[in-house]
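Render this sequence as a predicted structure.
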Amino acid sequence: MTGHQAAKSDLGVLAARVLFSVQRELFAALAEQGFDDIQPRAGAVLAYLRADGIRASELARTSGQHKQVIGSLIDDLERLGYVERKPDPADRRAKLIYPTERGLLQMEAAASIMRAIEERHAKALGKREYASFKMALQRVADLQRKAQRDSQDTGTQPGQAE
């Protein structure tokens, strides 16, 4: 198998193709609905934002991004009016990130767009096959996350012999 053929079926390449294609479609549709001031990189915050607030450290953990990256994205989204920082009622030293009214509207629009994308794929593949695909993809994502955690615990790279 040539390098080009191997790249076609490589997990990373396929995952990236899906991710970037979905992001382009999502953010183009959001722009058409008036949310043209946010970039796909903001998805690391927006995809995990909760109406009841979330700590920046939790956004970093769930998105897999560094805390500094998340902090910068929160700053940008706060400046654009999508999020606001408020004291955490459980720990006044900490801040929670909440969506503003505009942020909630963007979250609703994104959810609707994503439902349409998923419905299109489910129709093309068949609901059962699409559900199986998503379940397998979730398992692969979980395995990758576990391998990453394990490698951090042991100081090795995922797949590297200890």
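Summary. The helical segments are 3-9, 11-32, 43-46, 56-63, 67-80, 101-125, 127-154. The mean pLDDT is 90.
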